[in-house]
Amino acid sequence: MIKLGEIQELEVAKKVDFGVYLKSPDDEEGKEKILLPIKQVPKDTNIGDKINVFVYKDSNDRIISTTTRPKIVLGEIAYLKVVEITRIGAFLNWGLEKDLFLPYKEQIGEIRTNGEYMVGLYIDKSDRLCATMNLYKVLRTDSPYKVNDVVTGTVFSLRRGLGAIVAVDGKYLGLIHEGEILKPLRPGSTVEVRVSHIKEDGKLDLSLKDAPRLQIDMDGEKIFSKLAKNKGFLPLNDDSDPEKISELLSMSKSSFKKAVGRLMKKGVVAMTKDGIKLVEGDNKVSNKIYTRGNNNINKGRSNDRDNKRNTNKNNRNK
């Protein structure tokens, strides 16, 4: 079956003066054939040869093929430049002779000639390839990714109370929840994110952070460093406003609470009604080592081993 809007391998079924006709390899009778114009035909092409082509409709609305790869195919998004604006819509340069139509109803915001806009490709009710700025309708939810995979995406929409909507690898729909956004993002921003959850419908939940356990340690290091620079005290605790935590530490309140909880278990910090402070004296941090050279919070296993050796040695000497 020949598929409109996709790159596919088709077989040469017939040669004519103005090109070759191609058919799907599984179409043994050659009932469905499309033209590849002579200027697109590779040299020394013979019947039975297979050629990778893109299938679209020409200016006369006839299905035709090309060996030129357009800037966008079905299932992808891309920035395309507006070359003309008419009463019914705009036309975009997508690398083929016939410009791509962006209907007025598929536009979001103001469109200007020579402006570049992020669009997807879809087939309309008349079986024509058209562009849309409504990327929800073209992004896929059948990604091959697993939880904790690190992927690259492009932000295409920001929703208050929801977060940043992302096109992952230009093909798949994902979301960075608002609480995960710790730096300014805008439509068009490229982000490296971690797949934190895959929903039942295939949509991806994304995080700007590393794997959770690693992130807690990294957040803990950041808190410890900030405490050291502020004479061992920060005016933050469980009751602090998320905005204040983000302002001082560039992390969400949830991340702050997890990291502080871990530091408290290690005996490195204590929390009061006024804030958090480094624990000092009474040997409360004897089994917790902080190496200032690389800002690494260790588990204190080396101290534990040293203490055990000393205890055993004292017992033998008694």
Structural notes for this entry:
By secondary structure, the protein is α+β, with helices and mostly antiparallel strands. It folds into four domains: 7-66, OB fold (Dihydrolipoamide Acetyltransferase, E2P), CATH 2.40.50; 77-137, Beta Barrel (OB fold (Dihydrolipoamide Acetyltransferase, E2P)); 150-207, OB fold (Dihydrolipoamide Acetyltransferase, E2P) (Beta Barrel); 212-297, Orthogonal Bundle (Arc Repressor Mutant, subunit A), CATH 1.10.10.10. It is built from four helices and 20 strands. The protein has helices at 212-229, 242-249, 253-265, 301-317; strands spanning 7-16, 19-23, 33-37, 50-57, 63-66, 77-85, 89-93, 100-103, 116-123, 129-132, 150-159, 163-168, 172-177, 190-198, 204-207, 233-234, 269-271, 276-278, 290-291, 296-297. The strands form five sheets. The protein has a five-stranded antiparallel β-sheet with strand order 3-2-1-4-5, with no helix packed on it. A hairpin with a 3-residue loop joins strand 11 (150-159) and strand 12 (163-168). It is elongated, with a radius of gyration of 30 Å. The N and C termini lie far apart (89 Å). Residues 281-308 have low confidence and may be disordered.
Topology:
Elements: E1 7-16, E2 19-23, E3 33-37, E4 50-57, E5 63-66, E6 77-85, E7 89-93, E8 100-103, E9 116-123, E10 129-132, E11 150-159, E12 163-168, E13 172-177, E14 190-198, E15 204-207, H1 212-229, E16 233-234, H2 242-249, H3 253-265, E17 269-271, E18 276-278, E19 290-291, E20 296-297, H4 301-317
Helix pairs in contact: 1-3
Distinctive features:
318 residues, alpha+beta, OB fold (Dihydrolipoamide Acetyltransferase, E2P), 5-stranded antiparallel beta sheet, 4 helices, elongated
